[in-house]
Amino acid sequence: MTDAPLTSVLSFSSALWSSTEAAKATGGTASGQWVATGISIDTRSLKKGDLFIAIRGDAMDGHRFAADALAKGAAAVVIDHAVEGVPADKALMVQDTFKAMQDFGIAARARTGAKIIGVTGSVGKTGTKEMLGRAFSALGQTHYSEKSLNNHWGVPLSLARMDAGCDYAVFEMGMNHAGEITPLTCMVKPHIAIITTIAPVHTEHFPDGLDGIAKAKAEIFAGMDAHGIAIVNRDNPQCDLIMDEAKRQGIQKIFTFGHSEEADARLVECLVASNGTRITARILGEEHIFTLKDAGPHNATNALAVLLAVKLIGGDVEAAIAALRDIEPPAGRGKREYLNIGDAENPVTLIDESYNASPVAMQAAFKVMALIDPGRGGRRIAILGDMYELGQNSAQMHRDLALPLQAAGVDLVYTCGTLMKNLYDALPEQNRGAHRDEAPEMAQIVPDVLVPGDVVLVKGSRGGGEKPRMQLVVEALRALPLKHADAANKAH
What pLDDT digit, counting tens, does each position of 362-373 carry? Predict the structure, then answer.
């Protein structure tokens, strides 16, 4: 039997994997007929019609949730042994579920005719991925990964979710060790590869410093053929090294972006304000003037890489620019919120940068913060968590944030974590808010110090938990309007 009667019920755009296609992609066995409209590895976010892959993680085995996935509407589940509550006709039986997810990704890449864009870099890769996704969506059906699906499981998962009929697809690739991007890019096989910048992130794993990080990022070229296009940040000191790595992989089409007059996409002028950035750019000799909601020169530079990619692929640059104008920062990466804590006309401005941190990203966030004027009686307050994987110079890198904070006009600094204690001790007495070793402790104290008009930045490295550790602080601050409303109601 074939599953033609089933696929005929669904539109081609909604059918992602049929039982027959899934079995062929993975080498597994499907006893029943079904059609999946998505892929999930987490029952908490599973949508009706998804194919649930029971991945074994370090702390949890997805097979425990296979029956729950079906109860929540999954089309079928991918398992490697019989599971109670999972009927045979709703199962794709494979030898290894993680390998099956990789196989789905490889098969999805093989069947698509889309133009593929890959992006990596020490900082800015997720924001650039979002801009690429929006820009290419203005040109045709575009697939791009949700959140930061950029590692050994996130990339094949994002590939597996790619519709066969899309015109463009964008994939983010990350690493913290040499050799980690190579298998990812060999799955993605990008036509265009972008490297945003190189910065001291994960330096404890790279004894040769920034050059080692640059070479690790340049692994993205390993998945490309000789017809591929490399786009590199001309302003980065490791630019020539990266271009040499691209040439070593046989790539002949290499383009650059940045402030340099030599750049193929040049940032001619960048006027940054608290509510956005006005940009004058020259893309392969053609001038474009536009604005971005996201404040900061680093975002302007990465936008050039996006528009250069559009231009090189033959797309409409002005249509791409129009799509970028309204893009908001991703959650935890500069999203700005306004909190009413008793004076609706003079709110607290919260800048949520809680997803991750590095010295370069910290300083970029401080510069954005400096552009935002506090309201009446308000102050600039930074709540900063540890920066991880900085190697033997970590303590000094934390201390070195003191001067950029003062230059940005930050009034009070609250530090969280044993590494950030180095910064706290380096600050002038008048700039010290408080220090706590753990995020839950910080989340308890900082809401009580805010007054209307304050501008508050929350930033720190992610940590090993399910959510970024500094997100606890963000959540505590977000609850402030409710607390004030409750207090007001009780007063009446």
Answer: 998 999 899 899
Distances (CA, A) of 458 to 19, 172, 275, 299: 46, 24, 18, 19
Task: Tokens 């929350």: give the residue.
Answer: 458
Determine contact, residues 258/304, Cβ cutoff 8 Å: yes
Q: Which tens digits make up the pLDDT trace of 412-431?
A: 999 999 999 999 999 999 99
Nearest alpha carbon to residue 202 among 100, 122, 139, 268: 122
User: How far apart, in whole angstroms, are the C-alpha atoms of residue 14 and residue 16?
Assistant: 6
Nearest-10 Cα torsion for 120, 125, 130, 133: -20
Q: Phi then psi for 265, rounded to 5 degrees?
A: -115, 105
- What residue ranges define each of the domains in the chain, with the CATH number in brackets? 4-96 (3.40.1390.10), 112-324 (3.40.1190.10), 335-491 (3.90.190.20)
Q: Answer whether 395's CB lies under 8 Å from 361's CB.
A: no
Give the helix/strand (H/E) hosting 91: strand 91-93
C-alpha span between 370 and 406 (Å, rounded): 10
54-62 — which CB contacts under 8 Å span 24+ positions? 54/78, 54/79, 54/80, 54/83, 54/97, 55/97, 55/98, 55/101, 55/153, 56/97, 56/98, 62/97
192 exposure class (CB count in 10 Å sphere: 0-12, 13-18, 19+):
buried
Average pLDDT, the chain: 91
* Amino acid identity for residue 100 in this structure: A
d(CA 426, CA 429): 9
CA distances from 260 to 257, 264, 289, 367 (A): 8, 9, 18, 21
Look at the block and give the residue holding tokens 């910290």.
362
